[in-house]
Amino acid sequence: xxxxxEALKSELNxxxxxxxxxxxxxxxxxxxxxxAEPGLWQNPDLAAEKNTAFARLSEEIDPWRLLKxxxxxxGELLALAxxxxxxxxxxxxxxxxxxxxxQKKSLRFTGKxxxxxxxxxITAGVGGTExxxxxxxxxxxxxxxxxxNGFKVTNLERIAGEEAGIKTAVYExxxxxxxxxxxxxxxxHRLVRLSPFNADHLRQxxxxxxxxxxxxxxxxAPKIDEKDLRIDVYHSGGHGGQSVNTTxxxxxxxxxxxxxxxxxxxxxxxxxxxxxxxxxLLGKLVQLQQEQAAESLDTLRAGESAKWGQQIxxxxxxxxxxxxxxxxxxxxxxxxxxxxGDLTPFIEAYLDQN
Length: 354
Hints:
Radius of gyration: 24 Å
Structural class: alpha+beta
CATH topology of the largest domain: Alpha-Beta Plaits
Largest sheet: 8 strands, mixed
Helix content: 40-55%
CATH class of the largest domain: Alpha Beta
Order of helices and strands: HHHHEHEEHEEEEEHEEEHH
Strand content: 15-25%
Oligomer: single chain
Number of helices: 9
Distance between the termini: 35 Å
Shape: globular
Strand order of the largest sheet: 2-3-1-5-4-9-10-11
């Protein structure tokens, strides 16, 4: 048992250093002190930002702190234990070993923005109702995944299809390592099935684009020159082209140097839509910066961060059933389980490979 405890201590210390937990604990303590200052609450937005940052740091730190305390306590207990107590300690060591293995999965989230929240955007490809129905199926798949895995989701925009599915849907996803977890889903998803939308039930191929972008905290956000932005406002369009309100609340922001465009039309104020559009644009720019290995936003070349040619996963319903990732080659034959939100095997295969 002594050797197992020593091995646990060694693994814990190694993971502790890789995750920079001492620095994160120091940051959390500083945030806790700032939150305790009564004057902070005179600025509700800043207070909310610091509260959120503290909660997310605590969510990451607390499991490791608990493991460290448990291992230290067991070491002291083992030195004093009799034979009867040693069997109980052995069971506790096994439980800690299992928990450490579970927590070590967080070591895979080493990207600059992996710990941030995420924006998920689903867009139907060409193909009318068939494509929009496929986009709606993907939307349900992700919402089920979020529900099963404890992510909090906020709908930013949703434009329904005329007959079925969606034209587009945008969600903000909050939770531990949200962007790091979801970045494997970024790309084109292809469906092959017998179409329910034609009398002959012919085999049909449909495509949807899934974009996953990091939500950049205000303190870490790079500056965007105002002259590089064109901001247009217009009437929000509801289902069937009807106006959902009488004000110019919809916002379209174009980043002129790259040509990136973000539009948000929801039943919110123009200011709220502008803030969310800027949040999404910043995520797109940061992602494009990573893809181009650019030193700054000023050196970005024109181009989209997600292209329709980047097909990442095939979902085949006919003539056989198979879901296969084109990058990791991971595959599952239970397509219904996958479409019901069982995405963890695909996500873990991607994280293990990258």
